[in-house]
Specification:
Helix content is 0%, strand content 50%. It has 119 residues and is an all-beta fold. The strands form two sheets. Strands 2, 4, 5, 6, 9, 10 and 11 form a seven-stranded mixed sheet that branches. A four-stranded antiparallel sheet has the order 1-3-8-7, with no helix packed on it. Strand 7 and strand 8 (77-82) form a beta hairpin.
Amino acid sequence: IRLVESGGGLVQAGGSLRLSCAASERAFSSYVMGWFRQAPGKEREFVAAITERGRSTTYADSVKGRFTISRDNAANTGYLQMNSLEPDDTATYYCAVQRDWPLRRGDYWGQGTQVTVSS
């Protein structure tokens, strides 16, 4: 399964962005989907995940209340709505899918999309 992220960009602190993760196969609906991010000089960190049918979600404490993960299985696409962005959110954001919950290793990954938040 191939994943392609989009929607990154440059935004001022307090602004919003919506990331998309387009999957190449309808099998997308059989996978847990989630987002990770990696800032320069830092390790990759988990951001959010959603179960196959979207019934359950989980978030890193650093983004709770600001980010919302969702998915549209009919469109083979996942989303990450990011509000109240902060400079510390600056990173390359990757989507990943995995056969089982919870999302940890990611079985397939996208190439990443850059998010830059200016202060």
